[in-house]
Amino acid sequence: MKNIFLAFLAMSQFVVAQNKNKIDTTKIQKLDDVFVTANRTATKRAATPVAISKLTAKTINETKAVAAYEIINKTPGALMVNLGNEQNMMAIRQPMTTNAYYLYLEDGLPIRPLGIFNHNALLEINQFNLESIEVIKGPVSSLYGPEAVGGTINLISQKPSFYPQFKFGIQADQWGYKRIQASGAATIGKIGFHISGISSLQQNSWMTYSDYNKDNLNIRVDYTINNKTRLISNTMIGKYYSDMSGGVNETDFNNRSYKSTSDFTYRKSDALRTRLTLEHDWNTNANSYLTIYHRDNKLGQNPSYGIRWSATKNPTTATGEVNSNNFKSYGLIGQHTQKLDFWNTTIVGGALYDYSPVTYWAYLINLKASLNPGNPGTQTVNKYEIVAEHPEIKLANYTADIYNTAVFKQISFSPVDQLTFNVGARYDAMKINYENALDNSAGNKNYNKFTFKAGVNFNPIKNVGFYGNYSQGFSPPGITSIFRAKTGTGGTTGIAAEFYYNLKPATFENYEFGGWINLLNNKLVLDYAIYYMDGKNELLNVRLEDSSTDYRSAGETNHKGIELGLNYKPGTQWNIRLGGTIAKHRYIDFQLSDNSADALQNLAGYEMPQAPRWSGNSEVSYYPNWLPNFRTSIEWQSVGSYYQNQINSVKYDGYNIFNARVGYKYHNIEVYGNVMNLTDKLYAYNLTRGNAANSQTSYVAAAPRTFLLGIQYNLCLKK
Questions:
Q1: Which range is the signal sequence, renumbered to this chain (predicted)?
Q2: DSSP conformation class of 15
Q3: CB contact set of 200 (below 8 Å; sequence gap of 6+)
């Protein structure tokens, strides 16, 4: 990274000489009320019939986030759950889950191909490269395809600047975390560039065996061919390695004994994403683009969640696994936007083709479990140790070629000024050609789906708007679920491996009403959304007694809630933001067991686990007139109670925590400090528990009070 930073300095000096006689002809416009994600083209909020929030550059810059969850949780209705070292799970119109019901975009392009969802995809993101983040709540499969169900998050990267800019900063906390970051941007003639890099390191933290390191580099180059045509190149290179400390038991959690039970589990990732986009403005009413892209990802793990142990069956032994999931993607997407004078109509249409070959294998490892003192059947593990690795005993071993072809179209029109209609549809054809070495089978699977949406905006007066929509969502089962041997088969069991070949795609129907109100000359802004979403064949993980996972498709689920956001700015010195969601997620039909001897067979009417009825994030910010360039804020993060398991036998009370942030700019120097978990509260980011009577809770412990300090140098060279 040192060489990169030196290169930034050299380029900045060179660009000053090239630009010193130029005049900036660009105009600064306020774009807070304009979104690009919801309609695949720049659209004002008043013509966007979905629940969408925008996290601006100002919000991102003032948050000074270590991980993306610190920013995204400021969105009403979004709860991004920290799993440590930038790993996460999500809860947007869904319980906290790692399932494939969220779509993560980078400048409008999915970070992962269809069928290879990873809940940790955002750990590859360079936080120092973000210009803004747009969060859509609810299904947008009609525009972006499968997995765009609970929510879609579009991370929008910074663009080249006209004037030469250079930024360099460092930040660190008392728990061994440190990060160095730098960026440089400028325009030289017809070529503009923006380069951004970060290097993060965690050592000897509050949780044992939780080190990690991450390096990311983003490069964007824009070439203006003429005043109507542009060529844009984007490349991301990322490397990540993290220990996986896993959860702790209840006793250790309550005693604040943050001790990992394993010192061998890990997650590592090597990622490359590159794209080349040709944009052309045919006239003021017509625009097209064509993007070719490539992804190359290698993900290896010895996961803590892969450890299988039972308190009642051979408690001094356990098993684990090592796995590797590697894929490449070659794709093409084209889109045309056409505006018509008739009824102020906008038509957006396009097509996508993606080819992604993937290889995956997992093998068994035998572990020794050293136990803590206690009564037999209720003991907990003090430490796991590897006894033997068995690369010859495969838990999964397949190759697959994934083909995804899609066409989409959306039309919006306004027959009268106060009314805008929006209709969209998409057809996805997904084909998987596979070879499964565990059962020596080969074949193909097809998941084809037409998805539709329709919405309307009604803006009776300038400062009041309403919207309603009906939208469909769709998500095929991930291929890591399909080709994984069922629990109790394969490996050393002596039973032929069986697989989840019959898992069905999940489908969703969403009904929604919402709106916004601007009062007191835009000093007070209120937005809200009310939704009701039915899911069919939703893929669920059933946690068994030994912590292994069985996959089931629920017959029907229901998700409903209210999302509220309020922003009040009484003057230049204060800003008050309130946001949260009240929600209920439950099973309508979920056949948990087919054994007539089991007391619970169908969980119809039960609440889904890890589904708090309430979650919210609010903040008060102060910018004193008597001390320009100074800021301070207090943030409140609240998560209500929720059931730990599917049979609703044990609840977690939830938590309320406070974070504080302060910063000051003096000329080109900015100093800042964040205090996370201000009151040093004992709480857990997430809890899970099996359904068996003797199951024990696993706590993902949250960090104690953390002090983050940083300094940043910001240089913008103007004439």
A1: 1-17
A2: H
A3: 66, 177, 178, 179, 212, 213, 214, 215
Whether 467 and 455 have beta carbons less than 8 Å apart is answered as yes
CA neighbours closer than 13 Å in the CB half-sphere of residue 238: 29
* Predicted pLDDT at 559: 97
Please say whether the beta carbons of 220 and 196 come within 8 A. no
Q: Which two tokens stand for residue 271?
A: 């990622």
**Cα gap 86→120, rounded to integer Å:** 8
Question: Tokens 């925008």 belong to which residue?
Answer: 54
Give the other-Cβ count within 10 Å of 16's Cβ. 14
To which residue do tokens 């290179």 refer?
237
Q: Are 106 and 155 in contact, with CB atoms under 8 Å apart?
A: yes
Q: Is 225 left (phi over 0), alpha (psi -120 to 50) or beta?
A: alpha
* Residue with the two structure tokens 């943050």: 258
* Residue 584 within any structural domain of the chain: yes
pLDDT score for 491: 65
Instruction: State residue 114's pLDDT score.
Output: 86
- Kindly list the distances between the CA atom of residue 177 and the CA atoms of 128, 200, 402, in Å, as whole numbers in the listed order: 16, 7, 39
Rounded distance between C-alpha atoms, residue 488 and residue 474, angstroms: 30
Q: Are 611 and 710 in contact (CB under 8 A)?
A: no
pLDDT-flagged residues of the chain (< 70):
1-32, 488-494, 543-548, 596-599, 719
What is the structure's pLDDT at 374? 77
Task: Work out the angle at residue 552's Cα, subtended by the Cα atoms of residues 547 and 555, and round it to the nearest 5 degrees.
Answer: 145
d(CA 625, CA 630): 9
Helix (H) or strand (E) holding 72: helix 69-72
Q: Check residue 364 and give its pLDDT.
A: 94
**Residue 28: inside a domain:** no
Dihedral of alpha carbons 45, 46, 52, 53, sign: positive
d(Cα 539, Cα 552) in Å, to the nearest integer? 6
* Rounded-to-integer distance, Cα 422 and Cα 414, Å: 9
pLDDT on residue 7:
41
pLDDT (0 to 100) of residue 24: 36
Task: Measure the CA angle with vertex 696, ends 695 and 699; round to 5°.
Answer: 145
pLDDT of residue 548: 66
**Chain centre distance of CA 37:** 15
Rg (CA), the chain: 26
Distance CA 207, CA 205 (A): 5
Phi, psi of 7 (to 5 degrees): -65, -40
Domain count, the chain: 1
> In CATH, what number is assigned to the domain containing residue 576?
2.40.170.20
pLDDT given for residue 398 in this prediction: 95
Q: Which long-range contacts (CB under 8 A, 24 or more apart) does 457-461 make?
A: 457/46, 457/47, 457/48, 457/49, 457/419, 457/420, 457/422, 458/418, 458/419, 459/46, 459/418, 459/419, 459/420, 460/418
Cβ-contact 39, 421 below 8 angstroms? no
Q: What is the pLDDT of residue 502?
A: 84
Element (H, E) at 273: strand 266-283
Side chain identity, residue 449? K
Q: Is 534 helix (H, G, I), strand (E, B) or coil?
A: strand
Are 593 and 621 in contact, with CB atoms under 8 Å apart?
Answer: no
End-to-end CA distance of the chain: 30
- DSSP state string for 175-238: TSEEEEEEEEEEEETTEEEEEEEEEEEE-S-SSSS--EEEEEEEEEEEEEEETTEEEEEEEEEE
State the residue range of the domain holding 464. Answer: 2-21+34-716
Overall pTM surpassing 0.90 (yes/no): yes
Residue 711 within any structural domain of the chain: yes
Is 53 a domain residue? yes
HEC-encoded secondary structure of 111-147: CCCCCCCCCCHHHHCCHHHEEEEEEEECCCHHHHCCC
